[in-house]
Amino acid sequence: MNTKPKKKIKLFKKLSHLIVFIAVYIFVIITRILNHKQTVKLGVFIGKIIYYASKRRRNITYHNLKTAFPEQSEDWINTTSKKSFQNLGITFAEMFKISSLSEPEIRSLVKYRDVDEFDRVHKQGNGIVIISGHFGNWELMAYSFGIYSTIPVTIVVKPQSNKLLDKYLNKMRVNSGNKIVPMHKAALELIKALRNNEAIAFLADQSATNDKDLFVNFFNQQTATYKAPAQIALKFRAPIIFGGCIRQPDNTYLIEHNELDYSDIENTPEGIKELTQRHVSALENLIRKYPDQWVWAHRRWKHKPKAEEN
Fold it and tell me: Whole-prediction pTM value?
C-alpha cells in the first residue's frame, strides 16, 4: 500500500493550517492598532469578501432565509443575506481584538439589560445553564460575562480542525476568567460545574445529530437540535437563562436575557423535548426581531426526521 499520497495530504493540511494561523495572527496585530470604529469597518469589508467569494455559503444563506421567511421579497432576502455576512465579518474582526481591550473598554462596549439577574438566579444554589446562539457577537457576550459577573462559567466549544488556531482562540476565550471545555469532553465537566453552583454555557443553534438528538420546531421546520442543555438542566433543576448579544446602531452591544420558566416540566423524554422547544422558540423570537444578526450560512436544516427521509 502506497502511503506517500497520504503523507503528502497530511503535510499539505499542516502547511495550510500554518498559513491560516499566520494570516490570523497578522490580522490580530492589525485589529489591535485600530480603534473600534475602524475595526467595525474592517469587519464589514471582510463580510463583503466572504459573501462574494463563497458561492456555496451565499446559496445556503439564501435558501435558509427563503425557508424561514417565505413571505419576504427577493430584495429583503438579498439585503438581509448581505447584512448577515457583514455581521459575521464584524464578529471576526472584534473577536481578535477582544483580549487586547481593557475592562473599562469592554464595559463601554457591552451592556447587560439586568446583569443582577444572574446573581438572583445563582442564589438558588443549583448552578445556571446559559443558552445562546451564533447571534450578534456571541464571543463578546461570553468574554464580557467573565468581566461583569463573579460567577464561574464553563463554556462548551466546538474544537477547530486547525489545532494552532484552536489553541489560540481558546487561550483568548479564557482571558476574562471563563473556562472552556470541548464538546466531546463536556459531560463530566458540566456536571461538576453545576454541582459547584457554577454556570455552564451553550451555543445551541447548530445542526445536531439526526439519530441521537431531538427534532423541534424552528421557523416552521422540524429541526435537529442538541438535547444536552435541556437534559442537564432538568436533571439538576438548574435555572436556564437565554440571552443574545444585540448589536446596536452605534455598534455597541446590549445583552438581552431572561430566565426560562420550566417549573411545569418533569425530567422525562417528553419534558426534555418540551424544554428544548422553549429555548429554540426563544432564539427564533430573537432572530425574527434582528434577522441580519444571525449566522444564516450554516446548514441548519441539513437533517430531516426519518419519516420525511423515506
Answer: 0.91
> How many other CB atoms are found less than 10 A from the CB of residue 152?
16
What is the distance, to the nearest Å, from the Cα of residue 189 to the centroid of all Cα atoms in its chain?
19
Per-residue pLDDT reduced to its tens digit, 236-249: 999 999 999 999 99
- Cβ atoms of 219 and 68 closer than 8 Å: yes
pLDDT tens column, 22-49: 888 888 888 889 999 999 999 999 999 9
CA separation, residue 21 to residues 25, 99, 100, 169 (Å): 6, 17, 18, 11
CB 93 within 8 A of CB 39: yes
Residues 200, 156: contact at Cβ < 8 Å?
A: yes
DSSP strand pairing (214-218 vs 221-225): antiparallel
> 246-272: per-residue pLDDT in tens?
999 999 999 999 999 999 999 999 999
Q: How far apart are CA 200 and CA 122, in angstroms?
A: 12
Length in residues, the chain = 310
